[in-house]
## 1
Amino acid sequence: MLILAFDTATDRATSALVDDGEVLGERVSRAATLLEDVDALLRRAGAHAGDIDALAVGTGPGSFTGTRIGLAVARGLGLALDLPAAGVSTLEALSAGAPGAVAVVDAKRREIFVAGPRVLAPAELELEPGSVCVGDGALRWREVLEAAGAEVPPDEDERHLPRARFHAQLARDFGPAELLEPIYVRVPDAQPAA
């Protein structure tokens, strides 16, 4: 099964083309270049959009706008190519790339997203001494987490990325892309006008 997988919930978007578990190509960029990345992955693999069997899409939590970009692309591709899709938590993908580590996604507003999923201040995260923390939230809040006894790998360590190859591995329950739901964890800042 040829799966196109991507996650745009963090500052660094990832995408991958995976055929029966074999990674044919993978890219790291920004959410804004996701369609360019998809095109490049297909070209590099000598494949066409019509060859894709399914989509595996990061559903957050993470950046509201980034998550929406990924879901919009999934819905567009799903509709245009009649593809089933499966949503995968960005936190789960991070954990798959760093077994035993604590996945930490930057939630902005001086907060982080962690398993549950839940949102909290970095200093509120309870950690066992020596816990390894990965993700963009771990990078941003390195000092706080290390002061609490955690270890944070170097900035360039690939465990900080929610690699799309793990989305393809974790994807289950494929269905219509328009039914994918984002994981926001907290209510939006914007409120409807009265």
Note: The two ends are 49 Å apart (CA to CA).
## 2
Amino acid sequence: MTAGVTRSQRLLLAMVCAVAVSTIYAIQPVLAAAGPDLGLAPQALGGLVAAGQIGYLAGLIVLVPLGDVVNRRRLITAHLALTAVGAAIAAVAPSGVLVMAGLAIAGVFAVVVQIAVAYTAAVSDPGERGRNIGAVTSGVVIGILGVRVLAGVLGDTVGWRAVYALLAALCAVLAVTARAKLSPDRRSGDARYTQVLASMGRLVRTDRLFLRRGLIAVFLFASFGTLWSGLALPLGAAPWNLDTTEIGLFGLAGLAGALGAARAGRWVDTGHAQTVTGWSLALLTGSWLLIAQARSALWLLVVGIVLLDFAVQAVHVSSQHLLTTANPTRASSVIGVYMAFYSLGSTLGAITTTWAYSSWGWLGSCWVGAAYSLCALMLWILAQLGSCLPGDRKLLHAKDTDPGRAHPDLVLRDCES
């Protein structure tokens, strides 16, 4: 029997996600200031960005599966405390190597985000699972985009180290608060850590629902990464010539879109996860037509950013809802592997947007971003056309199998050939 999630707990878990993920992305807006302060050559600055990402990938593989073995509340508390340690090292370290070490430590334990989402899925009432996941995962996008605004302002006023000092303090406070406010989440099974690790590999090889959603996530977040990794390039150039703080303020448009998509969880709870995915991917593709106008009309860019972030968050919530419902006993490992696809997509978008911009300008980057979203849409369409292949598992809405159910839960059925 699930205990449910209160409004204050949803807010707390969303804050955990926002602050933890911020420790990975906060360095990007302040690279220009951090490099000279640490005596790093321009070509070495990529190491600062990569440190947190590499740590995060390691944490997804090594730490997230623990959520299916031990009390997730304890993990959330411990991971937040250790994220605070990594951020504090980055804030005070005198050399680039030590700052990278601090960022890597913070990145490893920033996977508390996935533990928080799995905790939310596990303790939510079935009829509110999508709503709660939507509210909590909105913190991820808020952190990724909001820290750009925060870091831009602090970096231009009190220095780039203040960003990590603040994040370290927030992580420490949230660790104490999570310990006090969250209910214990005890494991009911006897799964072992090594068994969970082995099941992650089998999941990718044998579960078509997971593989399809994972591939959609790769292209979804490649499109997302194309925008946010490359947006500073046209905005910092003629005719706009915006500074770091001004560019960071465009993150507010992304926040508006992400917060608006929190309602997608309610739609998913009513059994419309596939429909939400389809029209959101179509909206994502169309948003690039507006984003492509960045060199001529900033208001069209802002509208495009809102639509893009709304669509990305709606698909993200739908996927996590479907996957945690299909795999209720291993929500942590499922979310962990799914987020590895997310990380791969984000990295792909970051790499290709700078390559496209150097070759064809901002319009070229936009074509790449639209191509990624179109690939995700095509994957969804193909999955719908062949949604009941032999050996597949299919999520059916409870009203289709038992109209007397008291809540709009989802049930898992084997597909028929």
Note: Residues 47 and 100 are 7 Å apart (CA to CA).
## 3
Amino acid sequence: MKILVTGGTGSLGTSLKKVFPNAFFPSRSEMDITDARIVEEAVLAYSPDVLVHTAAFVDVRGCEEDKLRAWKTNVEGTQNIVNAVSKLNNGCYLVYLSTACVFAGENERYYTEDDVPSPKNFYGLTKMCGEVAVRQYKNSCIIRTNFVPRQKWKYPKAFVDRFGTYLFSDQVAQGISEVLQKKEKGTIHIVGDRRISMYELAKLAGSKDVGELTLEEYKGPPLTIDMSLSTRRWKQYKIL
């Protein structure tokens, strides 16, 4: 089975390299997802049986400050992927990585696959639009999740009042592999088994010296406060 994975330099892409060691992970120069022609040429040349699309502009503040880049990457880039796999005649299975940030997250609740998205910021909006693009292609699966790499927290502080059912990137990579084996279609949430704060998450990742931050202290674009997901279609994973 030939697998192509976009976004190979990100934390999830790095984890997927361990799960799919024989997959093709094109560099940006080999397959810039914002360039429709290059995407089509690369996809048709490799002719994958499975394409896992993880490449995205994920910085919330960056997406607010450079909306054009966010749109071209997260929306038009995803549409370019959909258009390219649609031209294959091998029934390529498309997996799209989305986010809990497609939801408002204003109340303490667990969003399931059946809930209606309502993003609070431009990043969430672009990922929601990416989902719409992927739904045009029937042999596809949208995976919503929320993860961080299993490494030292990259910021000096972490929110004590921002929550989610987080996982580490290696766990999400394993979950993607399991979804792929069953060729699930539609929307699936890959989630942790408990709701924790970002501060607790940073501690679990090994950052013992991380400081505490509250949303009251935060200055920036609107954030999804509670990113907790549940699932009616899949299993939960124990965050370790």
Note: The CA atoms of residues 142 and 180 lie 11 Å apart.
